[in-house]
Amino acid sequence: MFMEFRRSSLSADQSMPGMSTPRHSLLSGRFKQSFAYLTLRTRMPGIMQQIISHMQNNTPELVDEFGEDVRKDITSIVDAIERLKVDLNRDRYFTLFHGDEPDQAKWNAFLSELPKPKRSYFRACWLHAECYLYRRIFSFFEHSQYLKTYDYFAHLKQEDLKISVPSMKVLATATRQLQKDWTTFNKLMRLSLWSNHFEIQMNAILFEGPKNEKIDVLSLLIDLDHRILANESMLVWNCLIKAKKRAQKRIIVDYVCDNAGFELFTDLIFIEYLVDTGLATQVRMHVKAIPWYISDATRQDIEWTLDFLQHHPSDILSSLGHKFAELFRSKLVIIAPQTYFWTGPQPFFVMVDVDIELFKLLAGAELAIFKGDLNYRKLMGDYIWDPTEEFITCLRGFRPTNVCAMRTVKCEVICGLPEGVADSLVLSNPQWMTSGYYAVIQYTDSLRCNCCLLDQSEQDGIACDREKTVSCSIYQHSRPVR
């Protein structure tokens, strides 16, 4: 049974301060004017109801696949999600996991260590509450007989790719035989960046213009540069060019993915370019181990996307799908080893404590690119920094390798902006931080001496003064903010 802690049955609204999240504090649903509160109060219950409706509407298909007994699983899962909705609405305490979840021990240790006042949905850090909800939902499926690996978000991700076919055809044509230069790199990086924002899921009309007149699709993206509030893409280019000029045998890029669907397609185009130009000898794609945040990419999403493209009736998409598949077969692009750290509640600066193997893996790369808003929140610790605080400071020592963050701005966490920019945007658009209209591309060099990559016997012979040097990445990290 769950170890369960309960608050009163009063709605969370009856004790929430009516204010936005103060500066220098963790994002939390306890502030009623915050985006965190809006998400927990409205968006998350809506997502849970969508899962319930999907399970109920999809029952005939599931019965065809698994047999009549699957109805018991569906009923049990729906009931569990309904109870979770009530717990969220009443701001009850988190409960420990009781099944055989692969990450159960780490989740339970994390929950047990939280201060009691921060164990309920609206009083916890928003990142903790939101991740807990998504993880709890999947646990209901893990405990079922037939639906242990069922992705209840798959139909949404697949539909997103299908409706983007006109855009993908145009992009596939526009990204063949590209120049191997900074200008092209710059355009493809922006393509990957802006594909996260629905408005920029360019349709064929936008791409082809009136009367089917062709336009330069990639150059169109440069016109959005005024919306990139911090742009350090040149530093990312320089990082890879320097590695290539050093004639390194291996230039590994870790690509921490965000969404499946159209965004994954644009990511694959960018990754293809990195490999084709020799800017990377291998790209490792890091995806989620379980269905996550509706649209986050999993291994199954990559496999489905490759299959969809290869078997598409469009010659250009089919050809590109076969090209992508060959990159995987030749191991120029691989899916990184599965880890539940990406679906845990921890910020990235504690990775060295909770998943040292993942930290070592990243430390062996030349560059790690973190895509999307959730990865950015975890890089920042879901903390309201001063908008002018430097990116390198807000990482709190998490620099296992050269780090790049690419995200459209969809929550109140941000840093690295020029003086006065945030104040000006507040005056012109009070919702600028949650609109997705703006974006950042931020970069910092690694902080490491590579001690972490050695076996203990090798470390014994190295003089690494960890009290004086600032170069050993394992020891340069801060403790989490509770």
From TrEMBL:
Residues 1-23 are annotated as: Disordered. InterPro entries: ARMT-1-like_metal-bd_sf, ARMT1, ARMT1-like_metal-bd. Residues 39-424 form the Damage-control phosphatase ARMT1-like metal-binding domain. One of its GO terms (biological process) is DNA damage response. Pfam families: ARMT1-like_dom. It comes from the Eukaryota. GO terms for molecular function: metal ion binding; phosphatase activity; protein carboxyl O-methyltransferase activity; pyrophosphatase activity. Residues 8-18 have a biased composition (Polar residues). One of its GO terms (cellular component) is nucleus. Its cofactor is Mn(2+); Ni(2+). The keyword Lipid metabolism does not apply. Keywords: Hydrolase, Manganese, Metal-binding, Methyltransferase, Nickel, Transferase. Its EC number is 2.1.1.-, 3.1.3.-. It catalyses: beta-D-fructose 1-phosphate + H2O = D-fructose + phosphate; beta-D-fructose 6-phosphate = dihydroxyacetone + D-glyceraldehyde 3-phosphate; L-glutamyl-[protein] + S-adenosyl-L-methionine = [protein]-L-glutamate 5-O-methyl ester + S-adenosyl-L-homocysteine. Metal-dependent phosphatase that shows phosphatase activity against several substrates, including fructose-1-phosphate and fructose-6-phosphate. Its preference for fructose-1-phosphate, a strong glycating agent that causes DNA damage rather than a canonical yeast metabolite, suggests a damage-control function in hexose phosphate metabolism. Has also been shown to have O-methyltransferase activity that methylates glutamate residues of target proteins to form gamma-glutamyl methyl ester residues. Possibly methylates PCNA, suggesting it is involved in the DNA damage response. Subfamily III proteins have a conserved RTxK motif about 40-50 residues from the C-terminus; the threonine may be replaced by serine or cysteine. This is Sugar phosphate phosphatase. It comes from Drosophila lebanonensis.
